[in-house]
Write a structure and sequence with these properties.
By secondary structure, this protein is an alpha/beta fold. The chain contains six helices and 29 strands.
Length: 378
């Protein structure tokens, strides 16, 4: 992938707020940090790096406060594959969403040369970041924010963005009893270097401290995204975002940067993403909205719908998995049904002829009895 371009005098940098523990996606984040969990057979973080590379970014900063050594292999692989420099900016204490910007500046990773991207690591979206950058350069203010229109603004814990027709943001409204709109902060920003004067090296929030001040000073514009967007902090949202992503792949079929979905077949319904190394038995029916990871094995007569199977999962004969996420090297016995946004951690083994509904099972457990009501299995 070429990262060169002549659309600005210097290539912008991008800072990704990788953050810490990702507790809302447990038990998956007990094995891997949230940013490295596969989403459509590709780590969440890689989706963001690829979006930045397509926008002409040649230097990416990963701001994190939890076990940075885990990122080593990912960083080495990305740098080699995409010809991009990736640096880790490690916080000794959590600095919120704005503090890492000041830390990166102090460490000389970010500088005063060009505007730079900042984005959350728990979002998936279809947006032209190069267009966002060009819009930012055109209006000349300190910040541009990407916004998304959603049905339930309160669900995402974001303030409603109130903007003029030109995109100039007038204010941010906290969720309350009064309806203020359904356009929210989508977690992708461009800041001009002058923003460094507003952010101290301490725990600071972009959303609660920086953006409201910028709106008051008339220094922030918004640009609505036209494609899909989802915050994937929780399992149900992860699954919903996954469905949107597969629909995006189907729409962009043939694009060089998009993965190939499974071709139409009698055993495929809708959008299905099967890794080439997976083994699919006779009589299986897959879809809609299914991803089967590398090394997975589906025995005879398996039914999958709206689910994600991570690497090396085994689903034995005549079992059914719906609306669920199965963690690495887990297995489901014969004639078993898993549904209700169940999430299995790494190496969870479910016996045959069971019913699992809404169970969250921590890693390295053996389940030998049915779980008919949602619960956490410690």
């Amino acid at each position: 992938i070429s990262v060169a371009g002549c659309w600005c005098c210097m290539a912008p940098k991008g800072l990704i707020l990788v953050g810490g523990l990702g507790t809302q996606l447990r038990p998956l984040t007990l094995t891997k940090p949230k940013a490295l969990i596969d989403f459509g057979n590709k780590p969440l973080l890689l989706h963001l790096v690829e979006a930045l590379v397509r926008a002409g970014v040649t230097q990416v900063v990963l701001a994190m406060n939890y076990r940075p050594e885990i990122m080593h292999d990912f960083v080495e692989s990305c740098q080699a594959q995409y010809n991009v420099t990736i640096q880790c900016c490690v916080e000794n204490e959590p600095l919120g969403t704005a503090g890492p910007i000041a830390l990166a500046k102090q460490q000389g990773i970010l500088d005063d040369d060009e505007p730079f991207f900042v984005m959350n690591s728990d979002i998936v979206f279809d947006f032209n970041l190069r267009g966002l950058y060009e819009f930012h350069q055109a209006h000349g203010k300190l910040c541009t924010i990407m916004v998304a229109r959603v049905d339930e603004p309160a669900k995402y814990g974001k303030s409603v963005v109130v903007a003029h027709e030109t995109g100039l943001v007038s204010r941010f409204v906290e969720h309350g009893r009064t309806f203020a709109g359904n356009v929210i902060n989508a977690g992708v920003y461009i800041f001009s270097p002058s923003i460094f004067d507003m952010i101290e090296l301490r725990p600071t929030s972009i959303e609660r401290e920086v953006l409201p001040q910028l709106a008051q000073d008339e220094q922030i514009y918004s640009l609505p995204l036209e494609g899909y967007w989802m915050n994937v902090k929780q399992p149900s949202d992860f699954l919903q975002g996954h469905s949107l992503y597969l629909k995006y792949l189907a729409k962009r079929k043939g694009d060089a940067h998009c993965a190939e979905l499974s071709p139409p077949a009698p055993n495929i319904i809708g959008d299905v993403n099967i890794h080439p190394s997976a083994q699919i038995g006779d009589g299986c029916l897959l879809g809609p909205d299914v991803t089967v990871g590398p090394g997975c094995v589906l025995e005879t007569g398996v039914r999958l719908a709206r689910c994600i199977l991570l690497e090396n999962v085994v689903v034995k004969a005549h079992s059914c998995v719906i609306d669920s996420i199965l963690g690495w090297s887990s297995s489901v016995g014969t004639w078993t049904r898993v549904e209700g946004v169940s999430v299995l951690g790494e190496e969870v083994h479910i016996s045959g002829e069971l019913f699992i509904n809404g169970a969250v099972v921590l890693p390295h457990k053996a389940i030998t009895t049915s779980i008919p009501e949602p619960q956490i299995i410690m």
